[in-house]
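Protocol step 4 of 6.
Sequence for Membrane-bound metal-dependent hydrolase (Methanobrevibacter arboriphilus JCM 13429 = DSM 1125) entered exactly as in the expression construct, tag removed. Do not edit the line below.
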Amino acid sequence: MIFFQNPISIALVIIGASLPDFDHNIKKLNVYKMIIIGLISFIILYIANLPYFIGIIFLIIPIIFYFSNHRGFTHSILGILILSLLLSIVIIMGIFLIYPSLEYLTIMNNIENYYIISAAIISAAIIVLILGILTINKNLIVPFIVLFLLGIIFLPIEYYSFFTTFDISYNFINWLIYSINTITDINLITGFNLLLVNQMMIYFFLPLFLGFLTHLILDSLTPTGIELFRPFSSKKVHKKFAVACLILILLLAILKYFFTYNYYF
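Step 5 output, structure tokens:
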């Protein structure tokens, strides 16, 4: 809530915080479900001559968890960066697949005022709901869905603006998208503004990464600690890492308040 005021980003923080423990044996069933969904998505999209790359990327995510030791790669900085990036790409490509059929959809967004909720927001909500059902603890999934849908319906549309995000990733994501297009000979974003893709990337990447990071912070407070720099180093971090991260998050929250207090993020 410090950084994000819209239900999509808040939900992604929760999803990101729930995912790291998918490397545990008790989560193997969830991992198998994700593998099956990834395979089915790939096959259907390939047959339908649609961008099947989304199925391949989604399939990589559970495979990473399947081959990771508990509190191993998925509990490292490199691991959460890669997982956040892959999930962000899946969400964006999923939006572009669902978007056309929802382009003209309108719903009541506020009891007193009527707004047009963009098809992009509805598409993102569908993808986030699917990810939430796959990842969040079954005891929390019902309140998660209820609160998420209430937020989507009643929160003013200004809270969803893609255009108050930072541009720090612009050049990197330009390179990423065009590299994928070149390697696979698939145009992932035909007909869409590349700048919007960059902004959406940060819109989804940041909350996912923050969710992963909060999980790492909590695990670092346990006696076992975490191997933060795996696979490059097996050195474990503990309470000092957690304190440093909390201080950094607090400082970033203060900076955000002073520099973007008149915008919604």
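Step 6, annotate. Residues 7-260 form one domain.
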